[in-house]
Give the backbone structure.
Amino acid sequence: MSAEAADFPTPSCLPFDPFAYARRKSTRLEVTGLNGRPVALGGDEAIKVAVTRATFDRLAHKIDRLGDFKPDFVVDDSPLVAVDPREPLPAGLPPDALVTVGDGLDLPVITAFRLLAARLAEAGSSAPLLLKDTLHPAAPDPGGSSPTPFLDTLLSSSTTLGSLICDGLGDAILVQGEEAPGQSLRLAFNILQASGARIFKTDYVACPSCGRTLFNLQETTARIKAATVHLKGVKIAIMGCIVNGPGEMADADFGYVGGAPGKINLYVGKQAVKFNIPEAEAVSRLVDLIKEHGRWVEPDPGTPATPALSD
């Protein structure tokens, strides 16, 4: 053990069970949302997306065009308490505080938030927790471009926040490793979607394609997306064959699976229900199947397919 590690007491146990998912229990808290409306987080509420005041100011002119990508609240307007998890918690920590790890600390992010959750548990505090993807926020680049390639930020932020969410931690998230405001919002919502923490759009699962694939996976996926992209919360699997496809799509609501050359089988959950449908009819038959099971809604003609997230 290093001298630094010996300088502060470590928790007696992990703040979560690594073998069984359970979301950390937290106190329900109302913070000031956009336009002054209260936003609830903690308790049984879905994980919320936060932004800094600087990010919000850069988005304010198009906030009404962001659709489902609107941030939920501005951290600067919330009762946020930033702490160093290596130190004792502040005396008299308010039960209605939103707690996070302070920026600038020389700690791995996942370690820092696990340690903070353990500190809160030992203190008997159920204060809601704001997760961050980095403790060193990206600074605006004078040249107008992000100092870190977006793919690098995407991988780092997804790994960090995704791991913590899968630990059951977090009542809100703040992506601050990506300086571009639209990109940071898109990344935050997509991390929540991918981790299953907050579903705000249609979820698609597709196999990577191999020699057994019985149709053009890219073209078919594009056609299915065009017909179903407005179905929030519906998970659709597009699998090239029946060898591995049904097993890989086991948690999907509906499945589109190659059954034979030019023929498609349709699934509801793990159960195949329609067989040997001509490929030319298969997408429309999939839509019919979704309608039969009460999961279809008509698209809103007034809602843009792509929110105004460009930076």
Summary: The longest strand covers residues 271-278.
